[in-house]
Amino acid sequence: MKIKGLRWWVVALIAIATIINYIDRTSLSVLWPEIANELYPGHTPDETKAIYALISIIFVFSYAFGQAIFGKIFDWVGTRMGFVLSIGVWSIATALHAFAQGVLSFGIFRSILGVAEAGNWPGATKGNAEWFPTKERALAQGIFNSGAAIGGIISIPLIAFLTIYFSWQAIFILIGLVGLLWLIPWWILVKAPPKKHPWITEEERAYILTGQRNEEFDGDGDADQEYNPDTKELLGHKQSWGVILASAAIDPIWWLFVFWIPIYLNEVYGMDVKSIGLYGWVPYAGAMLGAWFGGLLAQNRLRAGWNVNKTRKMVITLGCLIMLPALLAMASPGGPTAAVIIMAVILFGFQTAIGNVQTLPSDLFSGKTVGTLAGFSGMAAKLTAAGLTYLVPWLTSGGNYTPAFIIGAALALLTLASVWILVPKVEPVTKK
Predict the structure, then answer these.
(1) How far apart are CA 111 and CA 57, in angstroms?
(2) pTM > 0.85
(3) N or C: which terminus of the chain carries fewer CB neighbours within 10 A?
(4) How confident is the model at residue 116 (pLDDT cuts 50, 70, 90)?
């Protein structure tokens, strides 16, 4: 049996895994008003916000730790088994949230969830590098990233709807089961990498592998051999630090909204879970469109003859410049409708940029190095996200979120500086 366009089926499954990933991680923020009322009656909004921030920080730190672990795991066991381990464990952890009774139990289950969910990003980056030629990687990454946005679009109204019929405990069990069901088509379809997969057509195999061949960089007339540095060598290149720092700067912007959109709408505009369900999905619609736009724009420019360096830097810069004024506008958005629309613009810009930031490891390195660098950059990103999450209750005391949004604007500028200064040219790195 042969399947035409097998690579698109693979990336579609990864995107679906990402949708599930974001439903699982977003559920706590949507359900938190009800959980706080049940577990912490009599606490003030600032007190329950601090408890929520602590639980979220535990998740993000675990996520950061898991990024470093799973980057190596995917390089060791491959994309197929790596995803099985990742989504299998995080789905079980999600279901266990039903039995949480306070900070300790929530913290334990969120930490397991964080470690396991961390595998999704380096796994997707590695799968992208395996299954797509260079010119299609940004689009593939955009499809993967759109899964995060679709997860946000689906999760907030879905969970709000489920609260009509189920307790918050039952909701965690239901969404945990969905991830376990995903394992079935993944195990059946992704039997091997494209070089050895029995169901891939010869035309697609040749198209993928030919598009991944090394180019000639040193002017000797021959294609250069793949360079797979060890960890010490990898961290000795400033390009690696450019990727790490750019990821560390841009990622907290995303988490600022993932963690706090429902809390913001509840605190600033007095919305309950059902009202949040009507408004809270809008920013993620912007994120979905941005993911597609960033990927398609990069693909269009590459097909038009632009090189990888010019394409990546242009798209990343455009995304950051979209975010900047919108983040500053959140200081005084007006009503809730204007606020969620501005958030949608911010997340549109974020996703336009991030898909191309995430392809940088595979643009700069090859083989086993890709997962390792993706893991390190993901770990750095989550550590800075944890830092901002820790500061948010203090920054937003009394319901004033302006300082948090100003920090977000500064981080967008730092992203640009990291890419332009530390990655002078986006091309495969050669041995020093």
Answers:
(1) 9
(2) no
(3) N
(4) very high
